[in-house]
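Q: What would this chain look like folded?
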Amino acid sequence: MKNNPNQTFKKKEEFRKPFPIKKSQSVGGYHDNHSPGPSRTVPIFPSSRTEGRKPIQCYGCGTPGVVKSKCPTCTRTNEMETKVNCMTLFNLNSDLYPSSVIVLKIFGEKIAVCADTGASHTIAGEKLFKFLQEHGITFTNKVISFMMADGIRQTITALRTVIDLYIEGKVIPTEFLVLPEAKGNKTLL
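A: My prediction, written as structure tokens:
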């Protein structure tokens, strides 16, 4: 960068000027923040954000002062919403990267499964469901609400049980959900 003879340079300190600090008394329309040290007055203006707006109300039932997710009328306290993503695994023939396939033991039987580390729930496929029934496992009903890959939300009664899985010498009690209407799926978990 060349020096321009018409351009003058000033030191950084020359641009710094102290701001005047004024203490003033509260006047109508102003209030003092009462903090120790230098004081500033802040004008009070009516908020343009809330002018002309309707008050907040539940868009489900119209209860004033609440949004739908917090509405005591629309929110059922004894129900829990669960999001379950489903996938069908048809074939897995890969010796190159078997990192997602794990071997676990259920009732002494070794089973190779595809582990989804991001899953929030464990879904037992039709084969595993029959395997568990053969070993006398009892299931209880559990109402779940889930969204399928096509975006359609469903609320169904699923079957639930807790099974001890043996993985690499550790015992992990795992909740399994069975979707009774899902016939012919080829996933073990």
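The mean pLDDT is 70.
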